[in-house]
């Protein structure tokens, strides 16, 4: 799916990847602040936990997408 914004075509996939990258970055930063190592399995687990705890449907979807993205890299 695409849309136009200021004469630029933006794809929903690109927006989705931006959201996924933002969710991964947020959780990775929290893990580093807590002194935890960044490992794919732990990152995926944290993303799944954030998704399960989120009451916001949009955030839940972003965290779930990010968890799947990370899981595909393992």
| Helicity level | over 70%
Query: What are the secondary-structure elements, in order, as H or E?
Result: EEHHH
How many E strands? 2
Mean pLDDT: 82
**For the report, how would you describe the main beta sheet?**
2 strands, antiparallel
Q: Determine the CATH topology.
A: Single alpha-helices involved in coiled-coils or other helix-helix interfaces
Summarize the structure.
The chain has helices at 12-33, 40-53, 57-73; strands spanning 2-5, 8-11. It is mostly helical and 74 residues long.
Can you describe this structure?
Helix 1 crosses helix 3. The longest helix is centred in the first third of the chain and has 22 residues, at 12-33. This protein has a single domain, classed as Single alpha-helices involved in coiled-coils or other helix-helix interfaces, CATH 1.20.5. Mean pLDDT is 82; it is low at 1-6 and 8-12. Strand 1 (2-5) and strand 2 (8-11) form a beta hairpin. A two-stranded antiparallel sheet has the order 1-2. By secondary structure, it is mainly α. Helices cover 72% and strands 11% of the residues.
Write the layout of secondary structure elements.
Blueprint (H helix, E strand, L loop, with lengths): L1 E4 L2 E4 H22 L6 H14 L3 H17 L1
Antiparallel strand pairs: 1-2
Helix pairs in contact: 1-3, 2-3
């Amino acid at each position: 799916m695409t849309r136009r914004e200021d004469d630029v075509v933006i794809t929903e996939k690109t927006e989705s990847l931006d959201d996924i990258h933002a969710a991964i970055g947020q959780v990775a930063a929290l893990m580093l602040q807590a002194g935890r190592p960044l490992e794919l399995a732990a990152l995926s687990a944290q993303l799944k936990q954030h998704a399960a705890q989120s009451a916001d449907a949009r955030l839940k979807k972003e965290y779930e997408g990010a968890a799947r993205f990370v899981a595909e890299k393992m």
